[in-house]
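pipeline/complex-builder :: batch 7 item 3
reading input block
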Amino acid sequence: MNYINGGVCAAKGFRAAGIHCGLRKNKTKKDVALIVSDCDCSTAAVYTTNLVKGAPIDVTKRNIANGVARAVICNSGNANTCNANGIEVAEAMCALVEKHVGIPACDVVVASTGVIGQPLDISPMAAHMDELVAALGCTAEHSTNANEAIMTTDVVHKEVAVEFEIAGKRCAMGGIAKGSGMIHPNMATMLVFITTDAAISPELLQKAIRADVADTFNMVSVDGDTSTNDTLAVLANGMAENPTITEEGKDYDDFCAALRAVTSGLCRAIAADGEGATKLLIASVSGAADSDNARRIAKSIITSSLTKAAMFGADANWGRVLCAIGYSGAQVDVHKVDVDFVSAAGEVAVCRGGAGVEFSEEKAKEILVEKEITIRVALGDGDGIATAYGCDLTYDYVKINGDYRT
Amino acid sequence: MNYINGGVCAAKGFRAAGIHCGLRKNKTKKDVALIVSDCDCSTAAVYTTNLVKGAPIDVTKRNIANGVARAVICNSGNANTCNANGIEVAEAMCALVEKHVGIPACDVVVASTGVIGQPLDISPMAAHMDELVAALGCTAEHSTNANEAIMTTDVVHKEVAVEFEIAGKRCAMGGIAKGSGMIHPNMATMLVFITTDAAISPELLQKAIRADVADTFNMVSVDGDTSTNDTLAVLANGMAENPTITEEGKDYDDFCAALRAVTSGLCRAIAADGEGATKLLIASVSGAADSDNARRIAKSIITSSLTKAAMFGADANWGRVLCAIGYSGAQVDVHKVDVDFVSAAGEVAVCRGGAGVEFSEEKAKEILVEKEITIRVALGDGDGIATAYGCDLTYDYVKINGDYRT
């Protein structure tokens, strides 16, 4: 398996586009994206568990209930959520794809991101559909355009792609993601679209992504707020011509490994680009009683406001890590906890057996001023491991969210 | 029932003191507090549910297992938690009270607050015990001195007292609290000491505070981090000479009403003084399916980083309130949710039946720039009500916690 360029255009038979249609006031910010496949795709998705759900999620669920889709349309600037006519507007977005691309509306994945609670005016999209379709293309640049169009407060692109083999056939898979604030996914994350030319049945595809998100997107947190619009959709068009994966086995495992490479790369990118973040935090937990306990502990650390603020200040305040482990709800023997801080500048042991050990504050500072910090926790309770992805809590997070809407 | 002055010295037979002994470098900051009763007290306490617990909690639990205590000693500057000899040091603090006041060490409630994971040097306390005992007194000023000595990043005193009658006898009850960061109590909050001269059995006292905290301290959140050292202890010395409360009934209800007046006042004070806070947020939920659902929803709103940041910016971004209701884990019909923002400047309806309504942004801004904001949520699902107390998320929270330790 190799990492390659191309995002959602890396796999055969997918084209993408992103343009500014006028949903956003800033004319330099693209605000609508389209991804289309040359043929029908096995399609699976997972969504937010928030009871307040975006209208596009209801429409997407219905459209892919048969496991098939061929296009994705997504706007930024308005979440099309908690308003009077959200379903109607989401359906109209699918109808625009049918009218201008010829793909049936019932084969379209639709998503929206932005402010909650305001009516979404579809007319700017309708007026620019010809332009959007004309912009479709299959290069890396086209994927990046689509990625830009789904970004809100994101400041960097989030694209990952890999090539891999299934039964001797070269396959590719790539994804784009957006997500910077309101990021604490539960079953999926804010808008991730992955395409692949591998052939796989809808059932196995759904199984693969359900298993994957438990260790990837569900382990990311920026601010503890689970969005209303989280959607991860994977479209597999089969153009790599591998024998269709319809059961577990080596081919399925190869597919899952490629999926993990794409999803874990996107998770790191989302966490590192958390609103206002200056650094990526990774909580790496080993020796937990089991995987579930490991995940709880890793996510509790990455979610702790106090730990996040300490990392912003490059302060080796490991007591806050212990505190977050203690309230995580996980089974843990707190007298066996070891903690290290690790970065490109080296590593420092700060806690052994649940108690502090002497360390050089100077060395710790050197380690913690880096852009990527791993908080390594060893528990001695069993074989459970987990990794969670987060970011520091900064002045800019407060600034961005103190006046997001006005 | 009337509010009165005096804090922990409001009730008969209690004296208090707070001095600087040298645990903190800043000589103007008091760092050790002592509260003593003239006679034995029925004593009950609730503690953090964090698995990582401060050593003083273990010692206090053992000391009040028989339901009796006569003194409280508490230091700030060091939490005496996650270090090698915490139990030993907490016991030594109790022994200092025995040596200098004559109250048996096994009748002392001991608590510590401050940095986690560093050894607590007891010698400054030992060297200043005579001074601490000499400073004891029964005026409001003495209570305030004790309050100051337990404060860390707190910027205001937190004292509440009431006088009330039980069976025709005038009783008093008062408390002091500290708590500003790492505030998301679960069973109690960071250091609250309440004294009363009402006579009540230890069993009924424990019952009363367990019932009370579910609606008071457990409904406060500053940053979602549950401390390792949360302790709420109530000492009742019986000097009001009411017939001792040993069963439920009118006297018990009168006692609980006084307790609620003290605890809810302290909760508001803790939330308003959250680290870096510029305003008190109150989530007032009615019409939930039951109390438990109401509590979940109220606490979810008050805990949402995005809602907190929006309130800091006086931005009526009610979609974030809906979002927090949706991921709260409570049973709720999201199509029946009404939301209003309320303050001294008036009120504004922003959401009806789960969808946005038109409102004046200007009026909303006027309401949200006030120092105390109520987010009023009506659900139409049943009779459950709850109130939660929190604060806004500000630049100063990040600043305080980016370099708390160094």
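note: The mean pLDDT of chain B is 90.
queue -> next item
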